[in-house]
């Protein structure tokens, strides 16, 4: 049983814990929060025996095997670095770090300490993503793809009212691209790798982060358009178009439903039923890595490519973070 500790007491942490416990591979043993009372309430809910408000004490505790980090983006690097240097394996929410330089450094630290570092990007591990990969040859020569994730932020009204929520604050390495743009970006990178060239645009808020944006990725005679937004909702699915057919994907981040449209013939819903909590699959994937002690696992290559693209896109659109001074 993997002895798990968490950093962060929010809804995404709860969702991951539920998924981890459902996999029957983990036992939650510790909770960290800057507010010890908050940590205790969270720990009581899951019967975790230990609570911490000191990260070094958590990192030093021998009763903890793995740390799950779901703190603001700008804190990922320093917190993961501390844990790795104390011999803890780390599962970290996307994006792994604020920029490519930090990602390279963190992976190097993990390997030096013979620890596993794992970016918890759920899309890669849901069964329907693998199904999409297997269907691509049936589409014939690929020509177009629209990868779409636009979701109006529950924090946007607060921002418009003059507050400074984390979602739109560069101090936390946030914004549309880093929050939800990572999903369509990684979806495409996982299927087709780094584009030959790309062109990014965005609309920046006064705070300095992007409200929404687009990225056009070119793979010679195949174009992939990425849409992302934190200030609008979208009600259309994503689509991959080939000369012989197309795939339509609902809720791209989890590939909820996938429909195959052959150029000639009837449409077919090809997706399979997945777990309601899609984080179940990433929890299982990490458990396999942990059991096999795979330090240099295949996910690292994808994480590096994603981090490189996110950093290069931000340079194009003019978004900088205090964390970039690393």
Automatic annotation (TrEMBL):
Domain GFO/IDH/MocA-like oxidoreductase: 139-247
Domain Gfo/Idh/MocA-like oxidoreductase N-terminal: 2-118
One GO MF term: nucleotide binding
Superkingdom of the source species: Bacteria
This protein's name: Oxidoreductase
Species of provenance: Gilliamella apicola
